[in-house]
Amino acid sequence: MNEAKRTLKQRAFREVREYFAISLYLFVVFSTFAFYKAVLLAEHNADFAPHGFALINALALAKVILIAQDLHLADQFRDAPLIVPTLLKSFVFASVLTCFKFAEETAVGVFHGQSLHASISVIGGGSWKVILAFSVLLFVVLIPFFGFTELRRVFGEDRLMGAFFRPRQLLNPPPPAP
């Protein structure tokens, strides 16, 4: 159905569904990394349990992704081979999410009475290497996400979802007997 012909209720339902799908994807990724970090630190007798932060980060960053998509961020290469918009969107959105995370952590620190400098130093210990690693990590994590998004745009949501979640016999029924 054309986006212009959808009712407000249909558009809202689609946005909520999209929000939860993005949030779930990010939550799985962030939880996996949190689990990995907890296992690594446990080997060195350090406690670490940020699994709740994985959910909060996933929900916040999913909303940022939806807003950036609604602003048609990095949509200028829609007709290029799929690798181009996939990598471009992954890069641009990773940059946006890194900036958002940076601003969020800074605002939280200032809200809690820290100076701006102290708030910034909390982010990855103030190290540009940690911020760069976070950005690269987001870029890599977003490649399959935007690859799937671009495939869905080209092939249509029903065909792509069917290819992933329906038995193949239903997608390619045998030709009728002569």
Task: Give the overall silhouette.
Answer: elongated
Radius of gyration: 20 Å
Q: What is the count of β-strands?
A: 0
Count of helices? Answer: 7
The tally of domains stands at 2
The secondary-structure class comes to mainly alpha
Percent range of helical residues: over 70%
Order of helices and strands: HHHHHHH
Major sheet summary line:
none
- How far apart, in Å, are the first and last alpha carbons? 36 Å
Poorly predicted runs are: none
Share of β-strand residues: under 5%
**What is the mean pLDDT?**
84
What can you tell me about this protein's structure?
This protein has 178 residues and is an all-alpha fold. The protein has two domains: 1-71, no CATH class; 74-165, no CATH class. The protein is built from seven helices and no strands. The chain has helices at 8-42, 51-70, 83-111, 116-122, 128-155, 157-165, 168-171. The longest helix has 35 residues, at 8-42.
List keywords for this structure.
178 residues; mainly alpha; 2 domains; 7 helices; single chain
Quick rundown:
By secondary structure, the protein is mainly alpha-helical.
Chain-wise SSE layout:
Blueprint: H1 8-42, H2 51-70, H3 83-111, H4 116-122, H5 128-155, H6 157-165, H7 168-171
Helix pairs in contact: 1-2, 2-3, 3-4, 3-5, 5-6
